[in-house]
Design a protein that fits this description.
CATH topology of chain A: Jelly Rolls
Radius of gyration of chain A: 18 Å
Helix content of chain A: 25-40%
Oligomer: homodimer
Number of helices of chain A: 9
Strand content of chain A: 15-25%
Chain lengths: 257, 257
DNA sequence: CATCCAAATTAACATCAATCAATAGACCAT
DNA sequence: ATGGTCTATTGATTGATGTTAATTTGGATG
């Protein structure tokens, strides 16, 4: 069985050393990369479930996730809804810069480390280097594409497939920022977290996880998913990574000319 | 009863005369507005259900919706999923400019009119006026915020509330581009369209519509919603327009300085 | 080791929604 | 008007999911 080996995957993903701008960094030249990294005023550690920025709050800094995972959440009544998930390299609250306030909260899942970027610094750098504005725009467009896929997932898939889809997306996004593909995927979600991402009850999330186990597709235990066959899991979840634009050079080269 | 008067609302919304840049136009000065309007190479009429741009297609023009409504759709298997809705003034396929190809299709709902904008023109104008890049970025961020609200709607609401929410959002977005608030809202959706937006079956959409009628909240017939009490409908759908950032000046003034 | 607590699991029952099938209504082309 | 087609409506049945409650498990702590 592939269940025995838990220990070797407990290391959180991080982009330290080459850590900023995530997906986009391969499209930045040395100078641009230095500029973006220079924006970070300081780093901040977050413990589990810590709120980095709260919905409706006016903000004057943005943050880049460096290590760990974060949720975008909306509270309504006494319920919490998770509307997005972020991996290292993602700008987690960039919309606060342009829109002035947040339409949702940003919360850590497990411990996380972020780079704090004052809006003023972004502002200055955008004046100096207009190409940076495009980079930020691309990042926002990618977020939107991921949101659309979540919408389709919620419209199309039943509970077990939604859960499978979330893990497939996470795995792929982590690969895109350097995580090697392994049979185990560490992601410190509780079943309540999964339920809130899928729009189902926690009890049903539990049943859905049981279903994935039953089908031999994946085992999810204590914050880690184990699978011996990612391809089968992706097929089951009808996961197609096209929406992540992994192959796309974002026209940066042409644009810069 | 408020049901008798169908005829007076059949006029489609349009922004002709002051037609471009939609939500953002109030934040543009005369010169900028002229620049954006100057981007439109020509107009194009679309009949019902016409595909303006197809998923996975490489594109070299973008389009601004001038009159009518459009869907963002994803086909999967032989099913169609609607992941977004657009009103006049919206850039419907702007992401194609930056990302090179589309992750979904753009389809008219009823007849529509769009302004076609060559990517090359956007490119040139962005070089000349960096402030335009921000305007396009803001538009993308608004789209993302709307996507997130759809995600929450799908996670939180049952079928009748989802349908109510969609109409509330549509009404509010149309108000933001100049439509007066009336008891009747013309929107040429079939019950299949509503089903595909809500992630439910057409039969169930029909029952959900029946439920809204039963509750005295709204009547939906032949492409028009009638309600005598928008506030009640909004409350039922738990609709809160904050995510549309109607009050937000987008920091354009400060940024331009 | 004993205790505690959050998370996970299971069962029973109620509700929501999908599917299949049949019918009725509206609109269109001839 | 006639027939055809798309849309809307309704009923019956099955499956998916929510709710509540009780129980178990695993990990943390003293």
């Amino acid at each position: 069985m592939f269940l025995e080996s838990t220990a070797q995957v407990e290391r959180p993903y991080d982009l330290t050393g080459d850590f900023l701008a995530g997906r986009l960094r391969k499209h930045l030249d040395q100078d641009e990369l230095a500029c973006v990294e220079g924006l970070v005023a300081h780093e901040r550690m977050l413990s589990d479930q810590e709120v980095l920025a709260r919905r409706a709050e006016r903000v004057d800094t943005a943050s880049i996730l460096i290590e760990g995972l974060m949720f975008r959440t909306i509270e309504s009544g006494n319920q919490r809804f998770i509307v997005g998930l972020h991996v290292p390299g993602d700008f987690v609250d960039l919309h606060g810069f342009a829109l002035g306030r947040l339409d949702h909260s940003i919360v850590s899942v497990g411990t996380a480390r972020v780079g704090v970027v004052p809006h003023l610094g972004i502002e200055r750098l955008m004046q100096k280097r207009p190409s940076l504005a495009r980079i930020l725009w691309f990042a926002s467009l990618l977020d939107a594409a991921i949101h659309r896929q979540w919408i389709q997932m919620l419209e199309q898939l039943d509970a077990p497939r939604r859960i499978a889809h979330i893990y497939c997306e996470l795995q792929t996004r982590l690969e895109l920022v350097g995580k090697p593909s392994t049979r185990a995927l560490r992601a410190p979600f509780t079943q309540y977290d999964l339920a809130d991402m899928c729009g189902i009850s926690a009890v049903h999330a539990n049943r859905a996880i049981g279903r994935l186990r039953e089908l031999g597709l994946a085992q999810i235990r204590r914050g880690t998913l184990y699978t011996s066959d990612w391809a089968a899991l992706r097929q089951y979840a009808r996961f197609d990574s096209a929406y992540l634009y992994a192959d796309t050079p974002f026209k940066l080269a042409e644009m810069r000319s």
